[in-house]
Specification:
This protein is an all-alpha fold and about 140 residues long. Helix content is about 70%, strand content about 0%. The chain has one domain: Globin-like (Orthogonal Bundle), CATH 1.10.490.10.
Length: about 140
């Protein structure tokens, strides 16, 4: 029952923002996304569960690409020019627990920055299907057999 209510809230919040750039505005437009990405990335590089993932990454470039990706995804005027999610994460061999840690840290940052709950649900609904491409550890293991 609770899962059904959560899914309904996600679908309703996604539909509410689908017609225009309201979701982009709910996140504070580009300036709000920069704050969100800065805060979230700071959490990721400090999070014991996933910080090693960021050891050899150019964080300035990473943040800029993530801002553009979220901006485009949320209906803003940006264009993401990075690699697709599978190629971006293939060499990291992330598992479900690490993906969950990334999502949890993002949620904490959205709460901290007072992103409306409906906007948070909508973004998480957009990001959830990317798990298939981001979580590559099991797929990599299967490919190497």
């Amino acid at each position: 029952m609770r899962l059904a209510m959560i899914l309904a809230a996600i679908l309703l919040s996604s539909a509410a923002f689908a017609a225009d750039d309201g979701l982009y505005r709910a996140f504070g437009e580009k300036a709000g996304l920069v704050k969100l990405v800065d805060d979230t990335t700071d959490r990721w590089v400090a999070d014991e569960r996933i910080k090693d993932t960021f050891d050899n990454i150019n964080l300035v470039r990473f943040k800029a690409l993530l801002v553009d990706q979220l901006c485009e995804l949320l209906g803003g005027p940006c264009q993401y020019k990075g690699r697709n999610m599978y190629l971006s994460h293939k060499g990291l061999h992330l598992d479900e627990a690490e993906f969950d840690a990334l999502a949890e840290d993002l949620q904490v940052s959205m709460d901290k920055l007072d992103v409306p709950q409906s906007a948070q649900f909508a973004l998480m609904a957009m990001l959830a299907p990317m798990e298939h491409d981001i979580v590559t550890r099991h797929r990599f293991d299967a490919e190497s057999k």
